[in-house]
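Hi R.,

Here's the chain you asked about this morning:
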Amino acid sequence: MAVRKKCKSSGCRSSPKCGHPWWFDVMHNGKRYRMPVNDFALPRGAALPVTTKQEALSRWEPEFKAMIGRGEDPTVPPAPPAESATMTVAKFLTDYESKYVDVEPLKSRSSIKSRLKTLKEHLGSLPLKDLEKPGPIDDVKQNYKGRKQATLNRLLGQLRHAINWAIGRELLEKTPFHRHGIRIKTKGEERRERRVSHEEETVLLDAAAKMTTAEHKCVGQQMRDRIIGALETACRKGEMLKIQNREVDWTQRVILLRAENTKDSESRRIPFDPNGRLAAVLKRRKFLGPDAYVFGTDDGHPVKEFRTAWESLLVLAQGQTTRRERRGARVNRQALKAIDLHWHDLRHEAASRWLERGVNLRVIQLALGHTSITTTQRYLNVTDLEMAKAMEQLWAAPEGAKAKSAGREPKIAAAAG
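And the predicted structure, written out as tokens:
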């Protein structure tokens, strides 16, 4: 038992109803930790002395054991909290990083630390109490003019979380993020109308054939497979690069995307044509073994990024050279800006082609992994040629079909008497 009485008189015999205090008594790795519950609880925020065993077990015993598990000595009193009046924002953000960011199992720890570094540059010298006022944060918003709204939103969102964390530890009393203070202005996602025609697709695949030399590290075949994979599966880049041969089900003719590899942490299944060009890629990569990555290196090892190869391919597709202004810089940035084709546009193009071929909108939503149909609709771009074909079919339809499509029944001529 971790919580017990330690009665000095022999008459009460450690009765729960006696007035003696409760004690912690824990053995861990051959070492015994014993101390009164009140000596542990009161310095750590208990408003009143602990008088019941239930309170000691439910509230303070887990924290007592957790400290022992972390290698800390619970018998040592905690250091007095730093005065928020004298603490600077930089010192607070450093504590927030060490006590929260480095401890919690966060996926984007490096991105969070980068935002904290930016916040320290703008607010680090201010007293912590200044974060309760909207003025200093408004200055940050003004200095961020000209940058992407989404970048500013993520920065402010990180600061809001840090302030809420400080309020929970009584370092701050209130937050400036409310309807009459700081508001994170969200900007609607811009819809890209960029389409990839079949002619442009052919040019990209032909350019991949030129990247089989040592200059481009012989990634031509890999890039060709990835372009085909993006246009046939509509997967995100990160999802596609994590597909292994073991996740290709040839019986059901589907590719399984595991939950741990998807953006929304939901598994989904992408069907593929067993006689299509994607199946040819899957069959060729199948012989590398079940653990091999379908869109990885030639020998099946995983690839985290191929940005340089993609940008070189775009430049080669335009008949230009892959020159760099300096070592480590992006290839021919002016040419890339003129081409204006992102890898994610291939995902949009795949969804638009499915819609063009008559695939149900709900099916497209499930294949893309969207929780909202509105997001799926932003992905679907209809070309002028497709719109013209649809209108020509309407114009060529009989009068009755035209009236029905317009939402009314055709008029019936009266029979001659």
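The chain is about 45% helix and 5% strand.

Let me know if you need anything else.
M.
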